[in-house]
Amino acid sequence: MREKRKKIRIGIPCFNEEENVVPIYKRIKKVIRKIGKKYSFDFLYVDNGSEDKTRKKIEFLAKRDKSVKGVFLSRNFGPENSGAAITDWAKDVHALVMIPCDMQDPPELIPRLIKKWTEGYEIVSCQYRKAEDGALMTWARRLFYAFFKKISNIEIPINVSGFGLMDKKVVAAVGSLPEKFRFGRGLLSWVGFRRTYIAYRRRKRVNGRSSYGNIFSYFRDAERGIFGFSYIPLDLIIYLGLGLTVLSFIFVIGYLFWVIAFGNPINASIPLMLAIVFFGGINLMALSIIGKYIQVIVEETKNRPTYIVERTVNF
Question: CA-to-CA distance for 232 and 238, rounded, in angstroms?
Fold first, then answer.
């Protein structure tokens, strides 16, 4: 009997990518034609509340190619949640290849991803050795990942992009995680499974603008990683508080002995003001860190869905 072809879905998250929807489709089509008929491919575009003509371009492709599917979210729920939508709508396939629509990642690597998958790897991630971004952004990203690698409670690889392949077991495992405060790269490491990497060079964006609109978007993404996968900030508060308490006790005892032996040598108003400002700043920082963890707890207990689907195409 003829062996049934394995089904692979190409998941493409989009936000304001009207100039890239069709070109990335054409490039991927060209790549998968070379693979042959061993696999069955389809496309899944998830539009994250785009404000341009991204939806119309997806509908255009879907009318001409029934293998193109679309999931349109009711608004922009953030990059992490568009990725969650892709995993949720890809549980009926053997493998999922996720590739951002910005065309910074080369679809020509898809055959290599599939080859590694056939060798027994359940997760095949693309790890860029060099990114054609600005010097400041490259330096900031490298610094964050180096810092995050030190403080996270799991092993999270550095410079892994959103481009890669997941076996259906991984898709099911990631999709079963109920948390709302999501950091996709951390979740992918947390679920485990056999993993390998493919090195590549990440290109500079040519068309459109990044979904990370400003520097604060990167900070929020960093917060998701730090407060979702590390308790080091809380540990530092404890150690800092303990250390300051010991130093304060030593200072008070030493100062009392000095006053008894030699009298009060200095005007107390300036040291007192400096102490209030210093300890006030420490308390404010500690409360801010605790507040961030409380924010994560609040987001989880609300139990809202991570996204809402407005409508679908070709499902």
Answer: 10
Task: Judge whether 99 lies within some domain.
Answer: yes
Helix axis angle, 215-229 relative to 269-302, nearest 10°? 80
The pair of structure tokens assigned to 153 is 């409670």
pLDDT in tens, 283-299: 777 888 888 888 778 87
Whether 98 and 205 share a structural domain: yes
Count structural domains, the chain: 2
Mean pLDDT of 244-258: 75
Q: Which two tokens stand for residue 126?
A: 């693309």
Question: Are 211 and 293 in a shared domain?
Answer: no
Residue 100, class by beta-carbon neighbours within 10 Å (0-12 exposed, 13-18 middle, 19+ buried)? buried
Q: Look up the CATH number of the domain holding residue 174.
A: 3.90.550.10
Task: Say if residue 166 is in the same domain as residue 259.
Answer: no
Strand partners, 42: 9
Place of tokens 């077991």: 169
Residue 198 belongs to a domain: yes
pLDDT of residue 37: 77
Say how far apart CA 231 and CA 74 lie, in whole Å: 34
Query: Which residues constitute the domain of residue 180?
Result: 6-217+304-313
Place of tokens 């069709």: 22
56 neighbors 22 (Cβ within 8 angstroms): no
In a domain, 227, yes or no: no
**255 domain residue, yes or no:** yes
Token output for 247? 């130093």
Helix, strand, coil fractions of the chain, as percent rounded to 5: 50, 20, 30
Q: Measure Cα distances from 227 to 143, 178, 223 in Å.
A: 17, 16, 6
Task: Supply the pLDDT for residue 2.
Answer: 46
Between residues 237 and 42, the one the model is more confident about: 42
d(CA 24, CA 103): 7
